[in-house]
Amino acid sequence: MSSLANKIRAAQDVAVELYEVPEWDVVVELRSMSARQRAAFASNIEISDNGSVKLDVNRVEMLWGTVIEACCFDPDSAEKVFTADDIDWLMEEKNASVVDSLANACLAISGMGADSESDAGKDSSDSVTAEDG
């Protein structure tokens, strides 16, 4: 490996943000996906003939679950918060707008959100919940 490749390999380039989820009374550490994780995520996105993203319920659940599982860490222990098994109950039992906000923050920190830079680290306190109407 060249010295430049060694320097690049040693660079710490993972984006890290603390993300508050007030509805769950927790703060999670979001970390950007690796290039391989992001490529795997992107390869699961299906584009229709007219160029729009095809999204059915199963695809959205898989994509959200994948990004949440990849990006969410416990800020105290540095362990992943969710496993693949946890995604089932997360999607079944938790408020959709809270999960949506978390998934969007994960996408943003990984450079994939519409407003990637400005959304990273934003908490979900502005999310519309069932109580809000």
Characteristics:
alpha+beta; single chain; 133 residues; rbstp2171; two-stranded antiparallel ribbon; three-stranded antiparallel sheet
Structural class: alpha+beta
In percent terms, what proportion of residues is strand? 5-15%
Number of domains: 1
Overall pLDDT confidence:
82
Name the CATH class: Alpha Beta
> Spans of 5+ residues with little confidence (pLDDT < 50)?
116-133
Shape: globular
Report the major sheet. Answer: 3 strands, antiparallel
Tell how many strands the DSSP assignment holds: 5
What is the CATH superfamily classification? Phage tail assembly chaperone gp13-like
Which architecture would the CATH scheme give at its second level?
2-Layer Sandwich
Sheet with the most strands: spatial strand order: 1-2-5
Would you tell me which CATH topology applies? rbstp2171
Order of helices and strands: HEEHEEHEHHH
Q: Termini distance? A: 57 Å
Query: Fraction of residues in helices?
Result: 40-55%
